[in-house]
Amino acid sequence: MALTADDVAALARLARIDLTPDEQQHLAPQLDVILESVARVSEVAAEDVPPTSHALPLTNVFRPDEVQQSLPVDQVLAGAPAAEQDRFRVPRILDEEA
C-alpha cells in the first residue's frame, strides 16, 4: 500500500508540521520507502530472537559508591588560583548581587 499525499498531510497535522502540497507529494514516496524497510525488518525478526536496543550486550562499568576519606581542604585549595573562606574563588558570571 503506497502512501498518498493525503496520508502525508494527515501525518503532518498530527506532528504539527506545515507542509505545502508540493512537499506532501515529494515526501509520500520517501515515507513509503521507509515504511517498506521497517516492514522488511519485521519479517526477518524471528520469535526466537529477543528484542534488543544494542547490537552488543551492555554491562555496567561503574564501581559501587564507597565512602572514603577526602583530601584536606588546605591540600585541595593549594593548587587553586584563588581561594576564599575555604572555597574556590571564581569570577562572577552573573550580574546579580551576592
From TrEMBL:
Q: Give the record's family classification.
A: Belongs to the GatC family.
Protein task: Allows the formation of correctly charged Asn-tRNA(Asn) or Gln-tRNA(Gln) through the transamidation of misacylated Asp-tRNA(Asn) or Glu-tRNA(Gln) in organisms which lack either or both of asparaginyl-tRNA or glutaminyl-tRNA synthetases. The reaction takes place in the presence of glutamine and ATP through an activated phospho-Asp-tRNA(Asn) or phospho-Glu-tRNA(Gln).
Q: Does the keyword Transferase apply?
A: yes
This protein's UniProt keywords:
ATP-binding, Ligase, Nucleotide-binding, Protein biosynthesis, Transferase
Q: What reaction gets catalysed by this protein?
A: L-aspartyl-tRNA(Asn) + L-glutamine + ATP + H2O = L-asparaginyl-tRNA(Asn) + L-glutamate + ADP + phosphate + 2 H(+); L-glutamyl-tRNA(Gln) + L-glutamine + ATP + H2O = L-glutaminyl-tRNA(Gln) + L-glutamate + ADP + phosphate + H(+)
Write out the GO biological process terms. Answer: glutaminyl-tRNAGln biosynthesis via transamidation; regulation of translational fidelity; translation
Protein source organism? Microlunatus parietis
Lineage of the organism: Bacteria, Bacillati, Actinomycetota, Actinomycetes, Propionibacteriales
EC top class, as a word: ligase
- One GO MF term: transferase activity
Coiled-coil spans in chain: none
**HAMAP family, alphabetically?**
GatC
Known partners and oligomeric status:
Heterotrimer of A, B and C subunits.
List the InterPro entries hit by this protein, alphabetically.
Asp/Glu-ADT_sf_sub_c (IPR036113), GatC (IPR003837)
List its EC numbers. 6.3.5.-
Q: What is this protein called?
A: Aspartyl/glutamyl-tRNA(Asn/Gln) amidotransferase subunit C
Among the Pfam families in the record, one is GatC
